[in-house]
Specification:
This protein is of the alpha+beta class. It is built from 6 helices and 11 strands. GO terms for molecular function: DNA binding; DNA-binding transcription factor activity.
Length: 191
């Protein structure tokens, strides 16, 4: 069963007692964007969804987490990672270039977010640069990834790594022709 991003956003908005306009004002986005997402007529970028969820003080992990995870769990099988974004990839049956972010365990409980990231060719975190009060780093496992941090742009390949202050505007794009995989960490957790 596919995750319904629009229905989940509407459920959260209504639980917070907000109209679409109220949430749009709080999040600093247009009312039309909230409406389009709730109707599943727009697939939000990671940056857009994060901005909207900031209007209700919710993380992306909480947004996508459908079940309560066991407390103090130490080991995780691949199917136990929390899928944060792959559900953003299709609207009205049309598949978009997408990325997948899968989180290891309860990031908030540990103050550390560890992600297995997968970028299909053409995938992009979005034209709006990401900014958050954290530090993050990662290692490219396969493929290539264009990473922009402030005015610096670098194409990273397998074995290359990055580490920076996440308050500096940044963006990730797979400009290659193959899938890119990255293992990253962020503290404090951002998504």
């Amino acid at each position: 069963m596919e995750f319904d991003v629009g229905a989940r956003l509407k459920e959260i908005r209504l639980a917070a007692g907000l109209s679409q306009r109220d949430l749009a004002i709080r999040a600093g986005v247009t009312h039309g964007l909230i409406s389009m997402i709730e109707q599943n007529r727009n697939s939000p970028s990671v940056a857009s969804l994060r901005k909207i969820l900031g209007g209700v003080s919710m993380t992306m992990a909480d947004f996508f987490q459908e079940t309560t995870r066991e407390k103090h769990k130490v080991f995780y099988a691949p199917d136990e990672l929390i899928d944060l974004t792959s559900k953003l990839g299709s609207i009205n049956g049309k598949t978009n270039k997408r990325m997948t972010l899968r989180q290891v365990g309860n990031a908030r409980e540990h103050g550390l977010q560890i992600l297995h990231e997968r970028y299909e060719p053409g995938a992009d975190t979005g034209p709006t640069m990401l900014e958050h009060a954290s530090h993050e780093g990662g290692i490219v496992i396969s493929g290539e990834l264009e990473v922009t941090v402030g005015g610096q742009v670098q194409v990273l390949r397998a074995g290359d790594a990055y580490l920076f202050d996440s308050r500096i505007p940044h963006r990730f794009r797979n400009i290659g022709t193959e899938i890119c995989e990255v293992v990253s960490a962020c503290t404090p957790p951002y998504l």
